[in-house]
């Protein structure tokens, strides 16, 4: 039990440290299509991503549509830093799901947990394509 608690504590610390690199960084992008984020529909428009007050959590929002979602991403370290800020979406036919956020100059890729709807499409063997939207730092 103590070992499990220690592993969980280390995971939270490393997650917080990775998001601390994001610091007050705010990423914005114009997303030209509606998409799903954690089982919530998000309309097309300006999307902002930033580290939330609680460490380890991203705040992803479309302020014009008054849609905000908190997400606890999985962080994966890449071999080389990202060359630009991007939002990566999985596209199944005409449905889009936010799957990853990369920050220019960072080796950390923030992977968004899969929604129930995306898991169902994947289970039906629907082919997914990647759509990449360029973003900018503020």
Describe this structure as you would to a colleague.
- This protein is α+β, with helices and mostly antiparallel strands and about 140 residues long.
- The chain has one domain.
- It is about 20% helix and about 45% strand.
- It has two helices and eleven strands; from the N terminus they run αββββββββββαβ.
- It has helices at about 1-20, 115-125; strands at about 25-30, 35, 40, 45-50, 60, 65-70, 75, 85-90, 95-100, 110, 130-135.
- The strands form two sheets. It has a nine-stranded antiparallel β-sheet with strand order 6-5-4-1-11-8-9-10-7. Strands 2-3 form a two-stranded antiparallel sheet.
- Strand 2 (about 35) and strand 3 form a beta hairpin.
List keywords for this structure.
alpha+beta, two-stranded antiparallel ribbon, disordered N terminus, 11 strands, 138 residues
